[in-house]
Design a protein that fits this description.
Helix content: 10-25%
Structural class: alpha/beta
Radius of gyration: 19 Å
Order of helices and strands: HEEHEHEHHHEEEEHEEEEEE
CATH topology: Purple Acid Phosphatase, chain A, domain 2
Distance between the termini: 66 Å
Number of strands: 14
Number of domains: 1
Length: 294
């Protein structure tokens, strides 16, 4: 065989192996753990389960069973940072998946993929910057999703604020609807967080700088976000190539800080059904153990 033909075959084989691995990794659900020192001095630990970007479609039983099993961790509360859906018929599957967790205090925001049905992705365009939203994408039944989640006792934080009790403690929490599609209205919830609360918490789907900065300025102890998929296709030793927003790539997933607030960005549990792959960025849920500050 000619050397050039061998080279072409070698590249093709490597590409096929990488694709097969990426498809496998997209279903290699992983629990991450992080400790965040944000509680007042002398407080006992509080454990929050952070979920994001489930992108559920009917038939994803492995993902559903894995999420249901997280109840065994016995967290004190649950926060979900959007993109529950990726299919017109997914709402009952989402509610069934989360059913064991409805026993716990919970709150959520929506993401763009809860509003609009997915469609094939142009990866070259995605790598150039934040993805746009085609106005002709069909709407998903997001109202049914919100009704199901709130009927089960969870708080809808889309441009809203509230005080919730987690482990018997007062949490001043506020959120915005998805900044990625310009539904955020932080001005409706802006103002200093309650200084007497045991925890002040900001929640958003997409971690755009304008939202993170506003929440941090108002005194959020902790900000939770998703959307980035951690980059989804990462380079070992380099990390995320994109964040699909204006967040720096170095903060595409995990725990960091923003203007004095702790920031946790989840790499999420799903993908678009048109791009069911991940590389060097396993799907995840995170158990955050909040402790007393230094």
């Amino acid at each position: 065989m000619h050397p050039s033909a061998k080279a072409v075959l070698g590249v093709a084989a490597a590409g096929a192996a990488s694709l097969a691995y990426s498809y496998w990794e997209a279903q290699a659900y992983t629990l991450r753990r992080a400790t965040v020192p944000v509680l007042p001095a002398g407080q006992p630990h509080m454990r929050l389960l952070h979920l994001s970007d489930l992108h559920l479609v009917p038939g994803q039983r492995k993902k559903q069973e894995w999420v249901r099993s997280l109840r065994e961790l016995r967290p004190d509360g649950v926060i979900v940072t959007g993109d529950f859906l990726s299919h017109q018929d997914a709402v009952p599957h989402v509610l069934d998946t989360l059913d064991p967790l409805f026993e716990l205090p919970g709150a959520f925001v929506l993401g763009s993929n809860d509003y609009y049905a997915p469609r094939p992705i142009n990866w070259a365009r995605y790598l150039k910057g934040p993805s746009g939203l085609e106005p002709d994408r069909p709407m998903l039944p997001w109202g049914d999703l919100v009704d199901g989640l709130t009927t089960n006792g969870w708080l809808d934080l889309g441009n809203a604020r509230a005080t919730m009790k987690i482990d018997g403690r007062a949490v001043d929490v506020r959120g915005v609807d998805d900044p990625h599609i310009s539904r955020d209205r932080y001005g409706e919830v802006a103002g200093p967080f309650d200084a007497d609360a045991d925890l002040t918490l900001g929640v958003t789907h997409a971690p755009y700088v304008r939202v993170l900065g506003a929440m941090a300025t108002d005194g959020a102890d902790l900000i939770l976000a998703g959307h980035t998929h951690g980059g989804q296709l990462c380079v070992p030793g380099v990390g995320a190539l994109v964040t699909n927003c204006d967040l720096p790539r170095s903060q595409a997933k995990g725990l960091s800080s923003w203007d004095g607030s702790a920031l946790h960005v989840s790499a999420g549990l799903g993908t678009s059904p048109y791009a069911p792959v991940r590389f060097a960025c396993r799907p995840e849920a995170t158990l955050l153990t909040l402790t007393s500050g230094p």
